[in-house]
Amino acid sequence: MRIVKSVSSMKRLVRKTKKHRLSIGLVPTMGYLHKGHLSLVRIARKKCRFLVVSIFVNPTQFGPREDLAQYPRDTRRDLRLLRKEEVDAVFIPKEKDMYPQDYDTVVRAERLSTLLCGVSRPHHFQGVTTVVLKLFNIVQPDIAVFGMKDFQQAVIIRRMIVDLNLDIRIITGSIVREPGGLAMSSRNIYLTPSQRKNATVLHTALCHARQAYRRGVRDAKKVKRCLTRKITEKKGRIDYIEIVHKDTLLPQKRLQKNTLIALAVFFGKTRLIDNILL
Ligand code: AMP
Prior knowledge:
- The chain is α/β, with parallel strands linked by helices.
- The chain is built from ten helices and nine strands.
- The chain has a six-stranded parallel beta sheet with strand order 1-4-3-2-5-6, with helices on both faces.
- Helix 6 crosses helix 7 (151-163) and helix 9 packs antiparallel against helix 10.
- The site of adenosine monophosphate (AMP) has 17 residues, from helix 2 and strand 5.
């Protein structure tokens, strides 16, 4: 497994790989890997000859009062895990290499980035699209794998690929959960044991909503009220609960096939996201 620490050496490795006509796969991550990340790595491993995993805690997708400084990191452990997955190269660029002093360009999905998480994190998705496009340009993958846990992110990246005429196939992997149902996240380590227990309500409440839909409930307001009550009972502070179409991310008054129920909830200072697709 190659460990590549600079943009220029990554580009050199990509040129060599392309010369050998090997298909390239990319799994972008911010590290502190868990089973959710590894499930994406396994999907990618089957779909390409040369697999690159990037580890980069991208500063531009964090807001000024967010957790950039505390974001958990353990590169040695990450590398150990990736070696077991037969990853070909791990790209770990330095911040200054990705964003030199006079860096000045951004990419933004104008509409999609203002919805859902974009309301309370107004610059987040601009940071994501910009860094992902940079990674795409550096690694030049044929396929890239993203998790459904960040459903909005996957929708925005698909949009960017179409809008900017990129020849990259995006594959999404389903949400990997802890035994209690909590979606795995690097941020789960911020939770106290009681917050972690309470946070399992997110998944159980979403599953209840899906059961209600299966029983014939269609009224989005009613479903939202029920989710709000269940989550608030467990001391979750709701950032948003939205019922939207899975492609447009626009609100829907009635639940139907292809409806996405997405939410962001604080437990203490930790903001967790989760979703379910009907
Ligand atoms: P992150 O390191 O949080 O930026 O995540 C990197 C990639 O892993 C993104 O595509 C996420 O959607 C995906 N991911 C994070 N958590 C999970 C999970 N629990 N299940 C599946 N994919 C995940």
